[in-house]
Amino acid sequence: MAIKNEIVNSIYLSDNEIGNISTWNIPKMISLAKSIFCSNDFAMVERKLLARKQKSKLEIESLEQVKDSFSYKFEEEGLEKMGFANNLRKCKKELEDTRDEVSKLREEVRGRGKFAEEKYKRLLEEVESMYEKEHEIIDLISKNCKLENEKAKTESNCYELKCSRKK
What we know:
This protein has one domain. Helix content is 91%, strand content 0%. It has 4 helices and no strands. Helix 1 crosses helix 3 (26-36).
């Protein structure tokens, strides 16, 4: 009964005292509401509030399921993103390795090119030297032929001279 008197008297509470309602426990608040409303009205309001509570509870469960679904999708996307990031790192590493390999191959090709150029110059000099020697040999053969012809003429002239002396 003491609560009822307190509740009945609470209708006439000032704003300052109502401000303390937030510290009241739920049964005390319900008793206040019962004393203010008619019991039929209170029962109807209570049913509506319970229906709202049930609807809110279902909505909360639904939202939690949606949240869980989004959390799962978010985790999946995070894992997928990590997979892409790992794949990207691997690709970047492969690219860097390939660039290094291309660089090495270019240096090797340059080195081979220089070596081939030097070898070409040496071979060209050898060919030119051989060409000059061939011309010298041809000149010497030509001179040798001339000398042999002169020798043959001289021998022929000598023979003719000997023959003409013997006669």
